[in-house]
Amino acid sequence: MPGLLTRVTATARNALTNRPRAVLGGGWRATLYTGRGRARGVLAVGVVAALALAGCGDPPSARSNDSSKPLTIGISLPLTGDFSQPGTQARRGYEVWANMINAEGGMLGRKVELKITDDASNQDTVVADYTRLITQDKVDLLLGTFSSLLNYPASAVAEKNEMLYVEPAGGATRMFERGFKYLIYAQPATAPKQADVMVDWVKSLPADQRPKTAAYPTQDDPFAAPVIETLRKELEKLGVRTVYTTTYPADATNFQTIASAIAARKPDLVAQGAVFEDGVGLVRSLKQLNYSPKVLFQTSAPSNAGQYSDGIGAANTEGVFYTVSWNEKAKTPLNEEFVAAYGKAYNGETPAEDAADAFAAAQVLQAAVTKVGKIDQKALADWLHANEVDTILGKLTWDETGAPQSRFLLAQWQGGKVEIVAPDDRATTKTVINPKPGWK
Amino acid sequence: MTELIQALTLGLLIGGVYALLASGLTLIFGVMHIVNVAHGAFLVLVAMLTWWLWRETGVDPILASVVTTPLMFGVGWLLYRTVIVRIRGESVSMSVLLTFGLALTVEGLLNVTAGNKFRSATPGYFEESFRLGGISLPKAQVYGFLAAVAVLTLLYVVLTRTWAGRAIRASAQNPTGAALIGVSATATAALAFAIGTATTGVGGSIMSVLYPFFPASHYDWISRLLGIIVLGGMGSLPGALVGALVLGLAETLTATYSSLRWSTLVFYAVIMLVLLVRKQGLFGTRLREDVTA
Fold first, then answer.
1. Which residue of A has its CA nearest to B265?
2. Which residues of B touch A (CB under 8 A)?
3. pLDDT for res B133
């Protein structure tokens, strides 16, 4: 009976959210996968109610610490459907970690076994998956899935069953407004704080070299807009005058009018909440008007390496800033080993950011288990709330809601390549291109 | 004042391109009462082909339509003869189902063969502008607009000055009458579908330069194009032109004087207002509904 209700609300919801990856017209779009975005906008009403029903089962307060059996870690990932690309990368990240840890003898002296199921990018299925992993398969530990859309309901299943839930993605503000005790987000910062590192950079400039005016166009996107809004407020505090703000819909295709408005106001800095094609579109339009700001920051668009440089022309990428959670060249512990192991396992490919985030989530779980020394979910969560963990993304710490308190990386396109310019401990170069050269 | 002129000219340029993209859609509906939901997917398909040709051979993307247009004519003709013809005489909703299936097929094929990535052709002029006084006219948009005018003029001439065109119009206005005087309904419909599909040759090539696209981009485009032809009157070529110009102007004027976020709303509000007064759209006629009813 309750199951029926769950099914009905979930089906209706999926009709709205489970769309092909990207942009549909107007109101019923699902947010484009941003490379770091992770949250798809609509977190539907009724999810929580559905979870209360779905999560019945014996709370596994302390699972067996029998050392003869492998340590099982339950994971559901979007291996098919809208988020299959990031989902597959996350799976690789987890598997590279499991192989590395097993080569060293596992955790707590037990071999680690991943139990990965496919949730088909569907909120309904992800809830069923985690419920089954916890109540039927009785896994020892959990790791999170991909995107806020899926992590939102999945983390509620874990919370209900009092199991630690370390997620590699899912940085939407709403994730941390529920007061969960078992949720840990294994990236450096939540969505609105992604651009803090950019603010720090502006702050580091001598007062007379800071940008004096700024324009803030942003897509109406749950990831891009909060980043830009926080950035604007912080820069205003530093005395950077806001000369233009605008929000455009996801299906906007023509950016000439926005570019004209920006060019007319001649801001020193343009900071755009750009998912992808809007980032390319605005740069093209600015170039058509021959207006090149001294500093250009875009949220996600420039992280799509080849697609971005193809879209605006490689020469025009010079000096563009963006933020990102991980870099393959970062000198963080195990990063080099991770990149090498990944390349070895997958035809010499470079890991995607999503694979690195998953690897880091597993590192966080590993640190807690090793330090606590037993599988006690509450003790694991408490330990993570109180301690710092060193990952390939850098050092991570969390507040009581599981929101991370670190900094993203500030990346900049230099000579056709991406370099990390801040923070200092993870920078790959000391050179920062400022001001940005004019368009080529 | 410059701001207003800039917004108006840009709106017209953008609208012209929209008109070209919508022209095949309205033509096919006008003649066959087929709502070709796959039109957007065909545009993306051509954009992908054009991008590939441009990258491999360096040929100008807009010139590449010399190749893609006949190709899409063939694709349209073949599709009509093999697939579409089977739903002739069925309700409009059948055509929506069938062509939606075609759209998904094209999207799936592109996903597998070309990959789920954004592309855009970037010939030398893609980010340059003509300047007239204080007004800036992006070259790609201008070329797109000129190509749109050329294609729309050609379509108009074909439809009004050639026998085949008259046959198409005759079939649209009175299928029974046309059949009585010896117009083959199937051949005419196949021709109309092929011509309608062929317009995506030029449309898609311009799209590849102006708008970054990926396989699922067609959802965005088809909703926009359907809006245009509903406003203009389904089946009317001048209607598609006017509908497209209204959309282009709605975009640039709302973006200039308010915020781009309202432009979609403004456009659909215009559609609703027009439909309240004229349920057949600006240039639609009720005749066709009477004939097929």
1. A26
2. 3, 6-7, 10, 14, 107, 116-120, 122, 126-129, 136, 138-139, 141, 210-212, 214, 216-217, 219-220, 223-224, 251-252, 255-256, 259-261, 263-264
3. 82
Report the complex ipTM: 0.80
Chain A residues in contact with B255 (beta carbon < 8 A): 246, 248, 257-258, 261
Contact B14/A281, CB-based, under 8 Å? no
User: What is the residue range of A381's domain?
Assistant: 2-189+334-396
* Residues A133 and A183 occupy one common structural domain: yes
Q: What is the DSSP string of B48-87?
A: HHHHHHHHHH---TTTTHHHHHHHHHHHHHHHHHHTGGGG
pLDDT digits (tens, 9 = 90+) for A264-280: 999 999 999 998 889 99
Strands, DSSP E only, in A141-200?
Answer: 141-142, 165-167, 183-185
Specify the pLDDT at position A67. 66
For residue A189, the 8-state DSSP code is B
Q: Cβ of A256 and B10 within 8 Å?
A: yes
Q: How many CB atoms lie within 10 A of CB A351?
A: 25
Range of the domain at B232: 2-131+139-292
A166-170, A271-275, B223-227, B255-259: least confident range: B255-259
Question: From the CA of B284, how many Å to the nearest CA of chain A?
Answer: 25
The pTM of the full predicted model, rounded to 2 decimals, is: 0.77
* CA pair distance B209, B215, nearest whole angstrom: 15
Same structural domain for residues A388 and A343? Answer: yes
Residue to mutate among B13, B118, B143, with most A CBs inside 10 A, is B118
Are both A319 and A250 inside the same structural domain? Answer: yes
Domain at B182, CATH number: 1.10.3470
**Per-residue pLDDT tens over the stretch A301-343:** 898 777 888 889 889 999 999 999 998 888 888 999 999 999 9
Do A250 and A391 fall into the same domain?
no
**C-alpha–C-alpha distance, residues A73 and A130, integer Å:** 11
